[in-house]
Prior knowledge:
The protein is an alpha+beta fold. The protein folds into two domains: 1-274, no CATH class; 281-477, Nucleotidyltransferase, domain 5 (2-Layer Sandwich). 49% of the residues lie in helices and 14% in strands. The protein contains 16 helices and twelve strands. The strands form three sheets. The protein has a five-stranded mixed beta sheet with strand order 10-9-8-11-12. Helix 3 (57-105) packs antiparallel against helix 4, helix 3 crosses helix 10 (353-359) and helix 13 crosses helix 14. The longest helix has 49 residues, at 57-105. It is globular, with a radius of gyration of 29 Å.
Amino acid sequence: MGSATYQTRLPDNLIPFGVAMGNLMSEVERSLYVDLQSGEALKDLKRRYQVEFGINARQFNSVHAVLKGKIKSRKECHKRQIKELKQRITGLKKKIKSLTKGIKKAPKACPIKRKGYTVKQWLKFQQHLKKRHLVTCESRLKKLQETEPTIIFGGRKLWNAQFNLEANGYANHSEWLKDWQQHRNSQSFYLGSKDETAGCQIFQLDTEGNIKIRVPKALEGAFGQYVTASGINFNWGQDDVIAALNKDGGQALSYRIAQKNDKWYLFVTTDRPEVPFISSRRNGAIGVDLNPGVVGWAYCDAEGNLVDIGQFKVNLQDQTSAQTEAILGDLVKHIVQRAETWGCPIVVETLDFSKKKATMKEQGTRYSRMLSNFAYSKFDQMLLSQCDRFGVQLMHRNPAYSSTIGMVKFMSMYGLSSDTAAALAIARRGLGLKERIPSRNALGGQVDTYKHVWSHWNALRKGLPFRRHDLFTSRVANSEPVVKLSVDPSPEL
C-alpha cells in the first residue's frame, strides 16, 4: 500500500486565505530554518513560535514537517553531487590516459578534416580541454566537501535570475523581487494524523465535499476563526479520499494549498486502499528491458518458456515534462494491462543512471542525448504506482549480463531483437531460473564450478568474436528451428 496525491481547483473564496497562509507559513519556515541551524532546541522553538507568530501546535508541526523534508532532500542532493563529481573525475582521468596513448601512437604529419589539424594536434587539443575540465571538477569537488549544504527558499534557479535580469525576462530588480516573493510564498501545508477527526485537525474535509479550516490566531482578524467551502471533488482519486475518510480507526489526510501558473489548487495526500496481489509467479512473468529509443518486453510461463513479446518505440527527445509523462504513462498502462490479464508479476532492471550520466560527456553526443532523454526514474515511479493500483507485483532484479544472456541464448532461438531477448532474460531471472552458458559458446575453456555463473558470462562477453547480427544468424544458418510468435505492431508512443 502506497500513498497517493490528488488535486482539484481551490474554490475562489479560499484564494485570499491561501495567499495569506502562504505568506505566514513561508515566514515561519524561513525563521525556523535559521534558528534550527543555530542549534536551538525544537521544543523551545515550538513554544516560542506559537506566541511569536500566532499559530497553534499543529500548524507549527506542519511547517516543521515540510522543512525537515527539504533539509533531508538537500543533504541527499549534496551527497549525490559529490558522488557524481567523483565519478566524472574518474571518467576524465581515464579519457586523458586514453588520449595520451593515442598521442604517442599518432603519426606526426597525418592530416584530418578538423580545421587543418593533424591527428596528433587534434588529440593534444582534446587532451588539453579534458585536463582543464578535470581541474574545474576537482576544484568544485573540494568546495562541496568543505561546505555544508544550504537551502535557498524559492529555488536556486529563480534566485540566480536576479544577476542577469534581461536574459531572464525582467525589466528591473523590483519586478524580479515581486516574482521571487510570490513564488516563495505560494503554498501552505497542513499535516494530517489518523488520530485526528477526519484525518487532520486543522483542515477537515467531509464525504459531502465540505471543508473547514482552522485559521491561525495571526489571521483571525481578517478571516475569523474558521474558513469554509463546499463542492470539493477530486476528478481522480475521489473514491480513495472517501475511503480514507470512512476508514475504521482513522486514516491520515494531509493537505496543501499551492499556486501553479497563476492558478490555485488544493492537494490531498493519503494512503491508497490496499489492493491484494492478483499476480503470481505460477503464471509466469513479464520482463521489461529499458532502452532510450525502444522498450522491449517479453512474457514467459512459469518454466521460463517464451509466450509473447512486444516493443514500444519511445521518442522523448525535445519533449516537455508533461509530454514525457504522457508517453511513459501510455507505455506503463499497456504493460500493466497485460500483467493483469495474465495474472503475472512484472520484472524490471534495477538501474542507476547517475554513474552513466556523470561520465556521459566522455561517451559522445549520441550516447549523452540518449541518456539525458530517457526518464528511467519517472518510468519506474509510474510503473510502481500503477502496479499498486491494480494489484500487480513489481520486482526489481540486477540487470548484470542480461543483454549478453539474451543475445547468446535467446536471440537466434526465438528470432528476437536484442531488447526483447534481454527482457526474456530479466523475466526468467525474476522467476529464479539459472542461466548456464550454452555448450556451443563455451569457447573451449574449462568452467570453474566454484565460481558464480556470472563470472562465466563475463568471460564469454569479453571473448565474443561476433557482431550482434552474427549472434542472431548463427543458429539460423545451422538450420535450427526458429519459433514464430505473435508480436505487437510496435505502436509509436
